[in-house]
Amino acid sequence: MDRRTFLKASGAASLLAPILIRKALAAREQPLVVVAEGSDYAAITRKAINALGGIKKFVKPGNVVVVKPNMGWDRSVELAANTHPLVVRAVVEECLAAGAKKVKVFDNTCNDARRCYVNSGIENALKGLKNVDCKQIETERFSKVTLNGQFLKEWELYDEALTADVYINVPVAKHHGLSKLTLGLKNIMGIMGGKRGYIHRDLEVALADVNAHFKSHLTIIDATRILTNHGPQGGNIADVKVLNKVIASVDVVAADAFATTLFGLKPSDIAVTVAAHKRGLGEMDLSKIRVFRA
C-alpha cells in the first residue's frame, strides 16, 4: 500500500470509528429480555437466568434475598392467578446455590393469607429447603417510607424487602380488570401495606412512584400459563392459556413490555408500563429491546 492509499484508508477509518463506537454503545445499552420455552418449568427458569449471565451476577455469598412471587389469591396452580410454584422453587434454589445466606418468600395477599400460601402450591414447593423462609406478612413489620412521588408522598413498605440485599421480582402474567394486565411493575403491590385500594385513584402513577423508590434487581415473569380474562383472581380454567414460557430481564419495564405481546396487546396499551417508561424506569419500545430466545 502506497502512502496516499494508506492515508485515505486511515482517514476513512478515523471517520468511521466514532460511528462504529456509537453503534456499539447503542447495542450495548439495549435492554436484554430473555424468553425461555419448554414444558420443564424449573429448567426453563434456570435457562432464562443463565442467559442473563447467571444468578451469581445478582446474588453474592452471604446475601439475604427476597424472592417475591404473586401468591395473593386463594386459587390452585392451574388457574394461573399466582406464580407457578416450580418457577418460584427454581429461583430460590438458584439463589441458595449462589451462596445466599437466607431467601425470603412472601406476599401481602388479597385473600386469606394461609389459604393463599397453601393453595398456590408455593409454600409446599419450598418445604425442605434450608435457609428459606416462606412466612406470611407480619403487619408490624411495615415501615413508613418517604417516596416524594408524583402521587404518593409516602407509603408503608415491608421491612423484609427494604432490608434485603437482593430483590427478585417473580410475577405471573395475567389479565387485570382495572389495569388490563398485571406483570412485574404491579407485583410491587405485594410489599405495600396500608389501604392499598387508595392507589387505584391514580394507579399507574402510584406504581411508578413505588417502583422508582424500590427497584427490582431481576424480574422473572412466569408465563407458563397466563390468565387471559377475569383477572386478577380468575377462577375459570377456560380463561387460562398454556404458553410454557418464562421471561427474564434486569429491566422490569422491558420485561413487562414484551410480556404484553403475549396477550395480543402493545406496551402502549398498558398505562402502568407507559407511566414507568416516562419516569425513566426502563424501556418499553420493543424496537429498542433485544429479545433473546434461550
Write a short abstract of this structure.
Helix content is 32%, strand content 22%. By secondary structure, the protein is α/β, with parallel strands linked by helices.
What name does the CATH topology of the largest domain carry? Rossmann fold
General shape: globular
Beta-strand residue percentage? 15-25%
For the termini, the CA-CA separation is: 46 Å
Low-pLDDT residue spans: 23-27
User: What CATH architecture of the largest domain do you see?
Assistant: 3-Layer(aba) Sandwich
CATH class of the largest domain: Alpha Beta
Mind summarizing the main beta sheet? 10 strands, mixed
Give the averaged pLDDT, no decimals. 93
User: For the CA atoms, what is the radius of gyration?
Assistant: 21 Å
Helix content: 25-40%
- CATH fourth-tier homologous superfamily of the largest domain: LarA, N-terminal domain
Helix/strand class: alpha/beta
**SS summary, helix count:** 9
N-to-C order of helices and strands? HEHEHEHHEEEHEEEHEEHHE
Tell me the number of strands: 12
Q: How many structural domains?
A: 2
Description:
The chain has helices at 3-29, 41-51, 85-97, 113-119, 122-125, 159-162, 203-213, 252-260, 271-278; strands spanning 32-37, 64-69, 102-105, 132-134, 142-146, 154-158, 166-170, 172-176, 180-182, 218-227, 240-249, 290-293. Strands 1, 2, 3, 4, 7, 8, 9, 10, 11 and 12 form a ten-stranded mixed beta sheet that branches. Helix 2 (41-51) packs across helix 3 and helix 7 (203-213) packs across helix 9. The model is unreliable at 23-27 (pLDDT under 50). It has two domains: 1-30; 31-293, Rossmann fold. Helix 3 (85-97) links the parallel strand 2 and strand 3. It is built from nine helices and twelve strands. By secondary structure, the chain is α/β, with parallel strands linked by helices.
